[in-house]
Design brief:
heterodimer, A: alpha+beta, five-stranded antiparallel beta sheet, four-stranded antiparallel beta sheet, about 40% strand, B: about 575 residues, alpha/beta, six-stranded parallel beta sheet, 20 strands, about 15% strand, globular
Chain lengths: ~160, ~575
Amino acid sequence: MKHTISVLVENEFGVLSRVVGLFSGRGFNIDSLSVAPTNDEKMSRMTIVTRGDEQILEQICKQLNKLIDVIKVIDFNEGNAIDREMALIKVTAEDGNRAEVLRIVDIFRAKIIDVTTKSYTIEATGAPHKIDAILELLRPLGLKELVRTGAVAIGRGAKGWKG
Amino acid sequence: MKMNGARILLECLKLEGVDTVFGYPGGTVINLYDEIFSFKDIRHILPRHEQAGVHAADGYARATGKVGVAIATSGPGATNTITGIATAYMDSIPMVIITGQVPTGLIGNDAFQEADIIGITRPCTKHNFLVKDVNDLATIVKKAFYIARTGRPGPVLIDLPKDVQIATAEFKYPDSVDIRGYKPTVGGHPKQVEKAVSLLLEAKKPVIYVGGGVILGNAADELTKLALLLNAPVTTTLMGLGSFPEENPLSLGLLGMHGTYYANMAVSNCDLLIAVGARFDDRVTGKIASFAPHAQIIHIDVDPTSIKKNVRVDLPIVGDVKDVLKQMLKVLSGQAEKAAAFHKGIVPWLQEIEAWKAKHPMTYKGSASVIKPQLVIQKLRELSKPDAIVSTDVGQHQMWTAQFFKFSRPRTLLSSGGLGTMGFGLPAAMGAQAAFPKRQVIVVCGDGGFQMNMQELATLVQNRLPVKICILNNNFLGMVRQWQELFFDKRYSQTCMELPIDFIKLADAFGAKGFRATKPEEVEEVIKKGFAAPGPVIMEFKVAREEKVLPMVPAGASLTEMVLAS
């Protein structure tokens, strides 16, 4: 089961390696991880997409909470959060398929951010499954390079994480 | 007052109530040692190896309940502390370890004696700190002690670069600590406590399963009160020994791989298991699927990650065990009628347990010609003082001590349970003796483990620490040999310590005393002589070479599949 967890941490030296070390040391999976500072400059926020059954997810959240530098762990359930990801995609775009690439970009409301006579570089944003979908369509046309940010997530509704 | 970082550290230690530290000097702590030279409020003990220094601080902490403190220099000094830190981490021992570090400007440059000790100790400390600014030092020390001793205790490392020791700052020790990501739970949830008591009172076949948390949380009195009030049987893990008096008929002794027949049978047949400060380690549970198969499980632990990690739990209570047990006692006191019915209800269960005890008591086959190691342990108990502290190494002798010494007081057994560190016994005893100069401190070790830290004889003699060292010498790495006998067709690969060492001469070389027993009738006399002699003593017992620790549950088997003493 895929699961998205937000981890609010002290913006201090070595915190990322504490979190990552916890996952590797205990054999937990990380599908993706993204981290950056928040509106409170002393705090960073990580979004971790992980896999495991209920018992493993419970352990992951408890173990994260046990780290001294972790301020809060938010375990997002299906439906109570919005997640988004960005991808930068370099595709082959020569005579035959230049128009096809543009059509796909248009359908997914993505953007062309760099052009050469042989390629397009695309910026696509959306829920991770939407990124998967555009990639599926672009792959047969010649995918040269791909960078994904990993998902970031935020809870739905008027309340912030502090409630 | 303005002072340098080295002095600030010492002032902080003093304010934390530290009276003894175990440390080893070196290039990046030379400034700290210069301050120690004239700082009279803290006793400094110099071990002969940093690992032993950390084990000594650990032994000090286990025996006293206070935070143990060790110091080492950067690089090799710091890396030598790792086994000691990992040992303390696995057994949740409160410690603060201070390591020197190369000057901040050189960090990351592969400088002389540089090691990334923060990176290296991240997975084996509760937390660690690199001090980059002398102005943060006092706050960091305050936090380190707070983290080490609260919640589930553990070791905390402070990495202190040389330039920070030299730099000066205004010294002010903070009165309180506020760490927003660290708020350990204290009291148990009242509803959960009430539910636990009613589950307990409905049970017909309860067992109380006690771990090291009861000792660490100073909750032995509350635990004993609860057991006596309920008249319920108690089994303990290795780390829990001493939390409930083993001479009490309700005691089932040790459970698990080398536990008693009756403890393992009781756990396998109980209808309610109440785990207090224990973590369902694989050496305790055996095969998880058949562990306590008929029981509802209540689990009390200060660390939420311990709960439901290995086994299913029907009723978790997160909280300090002392507080939770107090809460339970209070709830129980209002339910006298139910308690009376409960007492009647469990009589058949207690009878069943008595029958198991009669069928397979904890025993061994004696001998008139060769010293049985179990005999030595029994004689040690008989001839030692009631408040003696016993430290063990790791292996067969450790299990025999756990089985036959019969502990009755908390903090009288010091043993590396989680990590199983050979070489732990002697330095840990050294730390305990430094804390309690007047008490009898005994090490039980094998010939293998003793040789891992025997250099500490020098520390004992130099500091007049009269530790009594009992070596059960079988010229084997006995526990591994036992496994090779049982599971590897007696192929004794590298477990025979062929060189016969003269431990008596060794003692003499260090300025300690040595006595040897080779026959059963000499055991008592050697122990008496050893205990009577002033100063550190080695008592060597040439024991039956291929004696096995029994009962034994083979790794991965169910608790009921015991190999019993014939």
